[in-house]
Design goal:
Number of domains: 1
CATH topology: Jelly Rolls
Biased composition (Low complexity): 74-84
Domain Cyclic nucleotide-binding: 16-153
Protein name: Cyclic nucleotide-binding domain containing protein, putative
Largest sheet: 5 strands, antiparallel
Number of strands: 9
Strand content: 25-35%
Strand order of the largest sheet: 2-8-4-6-5
CATH class: Mainly Beta
Pfam families: cNMP_binding (PF00027)
CATH architecture: Sandwich
Helix content: 10-25%
Shape: globular
Order of helices and strands: HHEEEEEEEHEEHH
Region (Disordered): 68-104
Length: 167
C-alpha cells in the first residue's frame, strides 16, 4: 500500500492530475505500470498512435519534432530562424518516425526540450486517438510510470470533464 500512496503523491504533483480528487488519483495509482528505457531508446515516435501517458521517475528524455529539409519549399513567408538557443537538430534513420524524410529515408528531428524526473508527457494520448506530436527519446537510462487510456477513461475522464466545466 505504501507504493500506491507514493505513486499517488507523485501523480498529484503533475498539473494534468492536480485538480482530481484524492480518491480518483489513488485509483489511477493502482493502474500504472513501471517501465524502463535505456539511453537512446525511443519511448514513442512522432506520428505514431499512442494510448499511454508517462511520468518520468528518473533520468532525462528529449522531446523531438521533425523539421523541414534544407531547400524544401516553405508554405509560409516566415523568415525567422527555426532553431532556438536550446534546440538541436538530430538525424534519425531508423525508419520509426512517420514524418516524411528526405530521399534517402533520413528524418531530421529538432530537439525542442529536455524533460527531467517529475515531468509528465503524452497526456493527449489519454484524451484523444490522435498521432503523437513529438518523438520522445531517453537521453540516459530512465524509469517512468505509464498510465493507459483505458484506465484513465474508466477512472478519471468524466471527473476531469466535471472539473473543467466548473472553471
Amino acid at each position: 500500500m505504501a507504493e500506491v500512496e507514493a505513486v499517488s503523491a507523485a501523480l498529484s504533483t503533475v498539473v494534468f492530475f492536480s485538480r482530481l480528487d484524492e480518491a480518483t488519483v489513488l485509483l489511477l495509482s493502482k493502474c500504472v505500470k513501471y517501465e524502463q528505457f535505456k539511453s537512446h531508446e525511443k519511448v514513442f515516435s512522432y506520428g505514431a498512435y499512442g494510448d499511454k501517458y508517462y511520468l518520468l521517475l528518473t533520468g532525462r528524455v528529449a522531446v523531438q519534432v521533425p523539421v523541414k529539409q534544407p531547400g524544401a519549399k516553405s508554405s509560409s513567408n516566415d523568415s525567422s530562424s527555426e532553431n532556438s538557443d536550446n534546440s538541436e537538430e538530430i538525424s534519425s534513420d531508423d525508419g520509426d518516425d512517420t514524418a516524411s524524410g528526405n530521399e534517402n529515408g533520413k528524418v531530421h528531428m529538432l530537439q525542442i526540450a529536455t524533460l527531467e524526473a517529475g515531468a509528465g508527457f503524452g497526456e493527449m494520448a489519454l484524451l484523444e486517438d490522435q498521432p503523437r506530436s513529438a518523438t520522445i527519446v531517453a537521453l540516459e537510462n530512465s524509469e517512468a510510470l505509464s498510465l493507459d487510456r483505458e484506465n484513465y477513461q474508466l477512472h478519471a475522464m468524466e471527473k476531469h470533464r466535471e472539473v473543467f466545466r466548473r472553471k
